[in-house]
Write a structure and sequence with these properties.
Blueprint lengths: L1 E3 L4 E7 L2 E7 L2 E14 L3 H5 L2 E11 L2 H6 L8 H14 L1 E2 L2 H13 L4 E11 L7 E9 L2
Length: 142
């Protein structure tokens, strides 16, 4: 196995006894429609009543090792990240969706295996004639 550290990929010469060569790219975990309730907003009624939010996250990490070893200790544990997000959101109070989103990104990027992430936080029913309003933020390890 040859590691091309500049690209974050690994060139494999033999996988499952097949004679083949390819480049493994990074993996992306998708957390879709994580529905939680929290205090979000600054209007008087929003300060005393929890509201629904919906979180979507793309989490990119180097999957070259777990793709070969098939060992769960080599991969990114998205369950640990999701539990930390749930606890932070449900225990918190936020005035702005942007702040909540930045906090979620910080939780995700706290894991050293994460290379980059994109998070969208939706606030359903924030506007009368819209399904939801959302804010997306991105972060990338430098």
């Amino acid at each position: 196995m040859q590691n091309n550290s500049a690209s974050g990929s690994t060139s494999l010469r033999s996988v499952n006894n097949l004679d083949t060569t390819f480049v493994m790219s990074n993996a992306t975990i998708n957390i879709e429609n994580l529905r939680l309730r929290t205090f979000i907003g600054f209007n008087p009624d929003e300060l005393i009543k929890q509201q629904d939010i919906v979180i979507n996250a793309l989490i990119e990490f180097d999957a070259s090792t777990p793709s070969v070893t098939d060992n769960e200790t080599d991969t990114l544990d998205y369950k640990v990240i999701t539990k930390a997000i749930i606890k932070h959101v449900e225990d918190g109070k936020f005035r702005l969706v942007e702040k909540l989103n930045a906090d979620i990104i910080a939780i995700i990027m706290d894991n050293p295996q994460v290379l980059k992430t994109q998070v969208r936080v939706e606030k359903p029913h924030a506007l009368r004639f819209a399904d939801s309003v959302s804010v997306s933020l991105n972060a990338e390890r430098i």
